[in-house]
């Protein structure tokens, strides 16, 4: 093997360093690229002089840098010189400021003091401006109150005066009382002058309202009237002016409507229909009602309290010792008081407006009533006047001239109506009718019922006022029917006082079946051929029952009469029915000879002697009486009364049933007395052959 030559330690380290160097290092690559720009020949001398070449290259670069930075260095030197100059100037300025500060200290102090005084003066100026605004009028406002034509500026100025007046009241609560009094006196002068001027202007405008039938109220006039409400006396003058103007205008319009009619003759004059009382009075009332609505609307536009703007003093808003609840209560009380006062003013104005038409209207209605209209027209007039009396009272108030006139005329019409009824009743009472052969009601009953039904129809169809109250109808029923009932009673008494009826019995012309098919009213009002009763008293009772039923039956369908008077008629019919049945039963028992014996049979005391031992109730006498009774019951002699003259079928049946029931009850008393051992009848079965149940069966009860 060959021997290996060892390298020198220094060379070995360098070689190792070269071998360990990374050739891909960016810094190495950049250095090599830079080296390649000036290292062109790769020769041994060039490699030996590489260090010196690189150092020369570095020296050249530094020399170039020094040459390039020489201009910047010179500029920096100039800047340094200028900075030094500025520092010297600042030192001079600081010295000057220190000198000025020492010399101007007094001026600054004076300026601060003047600034504070300016702020105080500005505040005082604002206070003075507010005072002038709240306590003084401007020249424009004074001119508007005194000289300019009345317009919105006037009301703004007047409102400002009222505000100032209220503020003065607040000022009086402070220590500036003298100023407050002087300002209040000054504002009072302005205010009174403005209100007097406003009152004259409103009166002038109100006079113009009487020139036209349907005037239009301007907004300016509304504002003026609202403002005048703060002065009740002046407001009253203006309200009276409105009332007087509209009073005259309404009177002219009413007379024109009566005599000339509308424009061009349409609508026609009201007096054209003077021959027709109902239409004549109705047209006048309708015209007055329409006029009341229009006049009321006009007056409300001017004087309606709800439309009043609160222009009162603003001092009302200030109260240091009053709680909010007390303020609310006081405001509510004040509003209610003002509302009542305004309503009184409205009523006064409307009353004055319609006062003039009361007399011509009253005279014409009285002429109608004096012309003696018939009963129906009188009743319709009374109802019409009552309706309008309620209606106008609701709109105008009860204590007014027009309402008093209407109520007075209503009373007069009602009096006329009842006087006609009274005369009619007196005429009937002077000539009472005779009882007909068939005991039917007289024609006066039919006429009276027909008239009453017509009056009821009118009453049911009458106009109802807003209060919903209809006039009472019971007095009308009593005034019409009481005389009719009286003449029927007089006819009954006259017929009863006569001798026996000599007319013979007539056969009924219609069968009971046909009679039952007729209505109750037809059965009452239609005369039928019936046989007369056997006694005047019975016939009289049937006659009065027929008359009362003829009155009662048609009234049952009408609620206005079915409450009181119909019940009264029913009680009278029941009373006469009971009396009739009692008389018939007594007559039958008398015919059988049992009437005078019934008290003996009814005597059940222990001390009474045996009936068989008495002559009146001996078996022989009693046998004859019962034989007659059985013959009457069984129809061998004659039939029981059937009350054929009674015109209501159900009453006829009821009367027959009551007679049969009374006879059955009487026979039951006799039967029990005969079977009673203490009466001593030896063969009671031979006397009382039929038990009470059998008698009831025979009688059909």
UniProtKB/TrEMBL annotation:
<keyword id="KW-0653">Protein transport</keyword>
<comment type="subunit">
    <text>Component of the conserved oligomeric Golgi complex.</text>
</comment>
<feature type="region of interest" description="Disordered">
    <location>
        <begin position="314"/>
        <end position="342"/>
    </location>
</feature>
<dbReference type="GO" id="GO:0015031">
    <property type="term" value="P:protein transport"/>
</dbReference>
<dbReference type="GO" id="GO:0006891">
    <property type="term" value="P:intra-Golgi vesicle-mediated transport"/>
</dbReference>
<dbReference type="Pfam" id="PF20653">
    <property type="entry name" value="COG6_C"/>
</dbReference>
<dbReference type="InterPro" id="IPR048368">
    <property type="entry name" value="COG6_N"/>
</dbReference>
<feature type="domain" description="Conserved oligomeric complex COG6 N-terminal">
    <location>
        <begin position="35"/>
        <end position="147"/>
    </location>
</feature>
<keyword id="KW-0472">Membrane</keyword>
<dbReference type="InterPro" id="IPR048369">
    <property type="entry name" value="COG6_C"/>
</dbReference>
<dbReference type="Pfam" id="PF06419">
    <property type="entry name" value="COG6_N"/>
</dbReference>
<dbReference type="GO" id="GO:0017119">
    <property type="term" value="C:Golgi transport complex"/>
</dbReference>
<dbReference type="GO" id="GO:0000139">
    <property type="term" value="C:Golgi membrane"/>
</dbReference>
<dbReference type="InterPro" id="IPR010490">
    <property type="entry name" value="COG6"/>
</dbReference>
<feature type="domain" description="Conserved Oligomeric Golgi complex subunit 6 C-terminal">
    <location>
        <begin position="177"/>
        <end position="699"/>
    </location>
</feature>
<keyword id="KW-0333">Golgi apparatus</keyword>
<comment type="similarity">
    <text>Belongs to the COG6 family.</text>
</comment>
<keyword id="KW-0813">Transport</keyword>
<feature type="compositionally biased region" description="Low complexity">
    <location>
        <begin position="319"/>
        <end position="335"/>
    </location>
</feature>
<feature type="region of interest" description="Disordered">
    <location>
        <begin position="496"/>
        <end position="520"/>
    </location>
</feature>
<protein>
    <recommendedName>
        <fullName>Conserved oligomeric Golgi complex subunit 6</fullName>
    </recommendedName>
</protein>
<comment type="function">
    <text>Required for normal Golgi function.</text>
</comment>
